[in-house]
Write a structure and sequence with these properties.
The protein is built from 14 helices and seven strands. By secondary structure, it is mainly alpha-helical.
Length: about 375
């Protein structure tokens, strides 16, 4: 009985306290973005090669029994090989870095890792579209047919999941969740370019059109967590969930704005204006935007990357180096996990692969800035 109590309560509490202590002690701010980037790569590869996942921190209010169950499953899911799109975002950045540096040892390792763990998985989750984006990158680098086949099969599977409400995140649900845009749109647009398939690009545009029409605020353009797909159609969940905004902009970033309808363009321009004004005033995005001061890098980093990419704000190397204080031993902290339904959202604490991947992307891009 004491062992059960330790596993479910004491061990969980100690890990939570360790993370909180780490986050309460900022690291020295680095002076060079290349050093920042290289430390992130090292930290990411350490996790990958040890077959550990940059763990999504658990909710702080889960039950005693649930904590006990989860205490035995902390590292049973290797990073970058499951259905979680967040892992794939990080895997992609590591792969791009290795290809750019012509690091054959890392490329071979990543390729073997992907072959062993990912190619054999059945298609079950929308998140897996990001794995298919990895397969396109590997096909372009190796010209091995198995990677193209994986991407083609994913495309066919996604088409089979389409509906009047678009490709919703969870089949059979009565609402469409914003997350799906940041998972399937990057794949569809990459697939369209790689294999000369304009229909895939049109399908990506369609997903953004539908969500913008029903899931975005007409006054400020901000996407809600979800909207119902049955009459009456209403928005549900918070409209200021930082991670939700991140998923939306990661999808929107992959298309040309001029290819969208005039109405959707207006909504996205409104969103860009709203987000850039928040950045100008507060210089960061919280777990729930404008609601509290719980810094959440899974919201912050994708949003600022997007705003800089589309020209709504201009980031400097100093802006990027500021975030090095949240890196500990090559891993970014102060991140949240996902959600459970429309009312329970993860509390920011600990690392997350999405934030790690976007920080890698930002440091890579910042190398060329003045």
């Amino acid at each position: 009985m004491n062992y059960i109590f330790y596993k479910a309560d004491i061990e969980y509490w100690l890990e939570f306290k360790r993370i909180r202590l780490t986050e309460s002690t900022p690291s020295p701010i680095l002076g060079d973005v290349t050093q920042f980037h290289n430390e992130l790569i090292r930290g990411s590869l350490d996790y990958l090669k040890n077959e550990k996942r940059i763990e999504l921190p658990e909710y702080t209010d889960i039950s005693f029994i649930e904590r006990f169950r989860k205490s035995f499953n902390k590292t049973d899911i290797p990073m970058g090989v499951t259905w979680a799109a967040e892992d794939s975002y990080l895997f992609l950045e590591i792969l791009d870095d290795a290809i750019e540096k012509k690091d054959d040892e890392t490329i071979d390792y990543l390729k073997s890792y992907f072959d062993t763990h990912t190619l054999k998985l059945n298609f079950e989750y929308r998140d897996q579209a990001m794995n298919a984006l990895i397969s396109i990158k590997l096909y372009q680098y190796t010209n091995e047919a198995k990677y193209k086949d994986y991407a083609v099969n994913m495309y066919k599977w996604l088409l089979s999941q389409d509906s009047e409400s678009g490709i919703i995140y969870i089949p059979g649900m009565c609402y469409s969740i914003v997350d799906v845009l940041g998972m399937i749109v990057p794949f569809l647009t990459t697939y369209a370019k790689a294999f000369n398939c304009p229909e895939a690009y049109d399908k990506a545009l369609q997903q953004i059109e539908i969500y913008s029409k029903y899931g975005c605020d007409k006054e400020n353009g901000i996407p809600a967590f979800a909207y119902t797909i049955r009459d009456p159609i209403i928005k549900i969940g918070p409209s200021n969930w930082g991670r939700g905004i991140s998923w939306f902009v990661l999808g929107v970033s992959c298309v040309n704005l001029s290819d969208l309808s005039i109405e959707t363009q207006k909504i996205i321009h409104l969103m860009n204006s709203t987000l850039s004004s928040i950045w100008t005033k507060y210089h960061h995005f919280d777990r729930f935007v404008l609601e509290n001061n719980q810094r959440d890098l899974t919201a912050d980093l994708p949003i600022i990357w997007y705003l800089n990419m589309c020209g709504s704000i201009t980031l400097s190397k100093k802006d990027i180096l500021y975030y090095s204080q949240f890196m500990h031993d090559g891993v970014m902290y102060n991140c949240s996990n996902g959600n459970s339904g429309a009312i329970k959202f993860g509390v920011p604490h600990g690392p997350n692969p999405l934030a790690q991947g976007l920080m890698l992307r930002l440091t890579k891009e910042a190398k060329s800035w003045r």
